[in-house]
Amino acid sequence: MSTATETFTQEDAVLQNRFRRQGKSLPGPATAMSQVEELLIEKLDYFVSSIESKLDHFDSYFKVKKEESKKQAKQAKQASKDNSNKYLSVRDINSNNGSSTSSSTSASNSRRNSTSSIASLKEISIMKLNLVQDRLRLIRKSVLSKGFTNLDYLYNLLDDQYNYLFNQTLPEIDNQLEQENEKGDKESVALNKEILSGKIINTISYFEEKLIKIDDYIREKTPLLEDEMDTSDAMYNKLRFFNFNRALKNALENPRGLIHYYELPLSWRENKYIIEGYRFSLKHTSMLKSIFKMHNETMNIWTHLVGLGIILYIAFVHFPSTNAFSKNNMWDNLAMYQFLAAACTCLISSSIWHTYSCFAHYPSRQNFACIDYTGITILITCSIIAVEYCTLFQHPNLLYLYMAFSIAMGVFGFVFNWSLYFDKPECRSLRIGFFVGLSTSGATALLCQAYYEGILYSIKFFLPLCYKSFVWYGLGVVFYGGLIPERWRYDVIIEENIGACQHHYNIEDVLEDNVGHAGREEIQQIEKELEEMRPHSHAQHGAVVEKMEDKKQEEEEEKVDNKVEGDEERNNGESVVDDDELRFRQLINKHFKKQPVRTPYANSWLSLWWVDYFLASHNLWHICVVLGVLGHYSSVLNMLDGLN
User: Fold this and answer.
1) Which residues form a coiled coil (predicted)?
2) Among 152, 297, 367, 476, which one is least packed by beta carbons within 10 Å?
3) What is the pLDDT of residue 637?
């Protein structure tokens, strides 16, 4: 066994000896019964209040053993039944406490009321003490039946010693109680009750100290950088989903089912200039029904649904009636139909995404976003393939080579849209590489045509694409990247973080998907503010986030206005944050306002209040996309008509 194991074994022996000495030096039954009971209550209070945070701390290190749970639960139940038949009831605790202990009892009332397992401790009996012991057995089962993934020897050592405390000492107590009960000596019965109480206290103390020692050991062995990353990720996740329940509640209570921007959790915030008209629900039926309701995504949905109807009309009515369709063969027409099918896929995917953009189940929401990205990838790939087919029609070998490259790039784009690895910030350069690769494919195809057919012919062939299609895509990027026109609204006061929220995006930002992440920017801003308020560890910042959440929940449940209660936070029994409560309230109110701050011009048409529902930047981008698709169809139709 390793040196660490031997060290822990020596420490266990020291702990056990100390607890045995404490058990033997308990005060006499006649004079100190109430003190023992009070000590038991205090220890149970503290233990139950702190065990939850301790268990949370171990979640990343333990793994549940399901095959042992039923067996141990059955053993605990049988032990409870056997022990309860051996012991008798005790006198009322109030007759033993006296006036000398009334003050200590009232001092712990607040903690007793918060713990359901000891809420009514007016009587303490041997049966109840055994139930407490059984409860400790269940705690042991839930904690110690889980093994360390990298520290198995610690688990084995702790399990053995804990089994010794619970199992090895119980027969001695049982024998003593049976002997004294046969004699009928009341004083001896009280002594036995006291022995059992002391044993429970010692068990709790041993358990707590073992948890502390394992905490220290894990903290010592875990690399500092990994620990900082874990705590930072935990704090980041808490910030992402802060205000989640309140948003669901407010959306449910609103007659229209809508909430404003500051009620959304940070992960759902995309454009800080769109204030009103957000949906937030966990029900698929609510999302689907919202297609036919008015909210800030209605125009985004219907611009593409209308565009879908136009494309279907073109595919089944207009294109079959053209001269190009009648004079060209099946493969020529297939080049057009694959583009039209890609356009339909893109428009449907976008409509689905905007229908579910405010879906409260975040993993599902991310999947719908991937559907949108996939539709865009398919449209870009098939648009370029259609142009390549017409451009290199007279050169089949080159045509097959270019089409194979474009298809390979499209498959690669499909993979990274659905891959968690390619979604990381450090992989965003691959997104640019994907779009550059597709663009290069189309551009070099035109260069090949210019080489074989002449520059003037190539320019005449390519120019309609520029003023019929590309100009609309470019104009849409200007609106989308510049957040135009909503960035000029002045019906509400929108705070700007000059350092992080400039909201001027270029084409690279659009390709890297850096547009519309106001929630991510706010998380970074909150983290920076927390650093300025209390420049300590990430763990303490996580406690600050918990405190913010607690304050927000208290305001909702208790309807408290402008009055801060001094709640005692528990993190291993210590107060973590001691900053001024007003600063936390200001931080909450800044990022999670109850209502947007209106200006005197809120009702003026020129204040652009209507961009929440009509002609926002994303609406204009959708219109430009539909026009770009129609322009691309017109250009490719002319190209097909000119094929020999």
Assistant:
1) none
2) 152
3) 93
